[in-house]
Specification:
The chain has 144 residues and is α/β, with parallel strands linked by helices. The protein is built from 6 helices and 5 strands, in the order H-E-H-E-H-E-H-E-H-E-H. Helix 5 (108-118) links the parallel strand 4 and strand 5 (125-128). The protein is globular, with a radius of gyration of 24 Å.
């Protein structure tokens, strides 16, 4: 009798698990589709210089303070201050279809901002972790 009860409980458990498994969403189901983020590719100064020539639509985001930006920045860069309260909202407003690179002075702030950028579905995302210091050290031009 004990064995019979055990078999019944075991069988009911299997049926319950199979029903639950049947209700799970699978990749491609509407319920399981979530906007995927991006993974930033790490680049150095020479690679960024080449990209600026090869990709005319490249968006360069300098996340330093406006005062640092005014002292010198990569030509064409836009300034979105990482320390500004509206930083995440400003980043969320960027066209994610355009190739985008972000940097700060030396990689500290841009490293902290990386998860914010990577949470968005950029088509191409690059992190210039050396920042404006590495750009200058490589002899690349800065504009004021």
């Amino acid at each position: 009798m004990k064995n019979w009860i055990f078999v019944c409980v075991f069988a009911l458990g299997l049926v319950g698990c199979q029903e639950k498994a049947g209700n799970e969403t699978r990749p491609g189901d509407a319920e399981s589709e979530v906007a995927a983020g991006s993974e930033a590719t790490e680049i150095q100064a020479d690679a960024l210089a080449e990209m600026l020539q090869a990709k005319p639509g490249l968006v360069v985001i300098d996340i330093r303070t406006p005062a640092e930006f005014a002292e010198g920045h990569i030509e064409g860069a836009i300034n979105i201050d990482f320390q500004d309260a509206g930083f995440a909202e400003a980043i969320a407003g960027i066209d994610t279809g355009a190739p985008t690179v972000f940097h700060c002075r030396s990689g500290g702030r841009s490293g902290q901002a990386k998860p914010i950028f990577e949470s968005l579905p950029f088509a191409e995302l690059y992190h210039f972790s050396g920042g404006s210091n590495a750009w200058s050290d490589a002899g690349k031009p800065m504009v004021k």
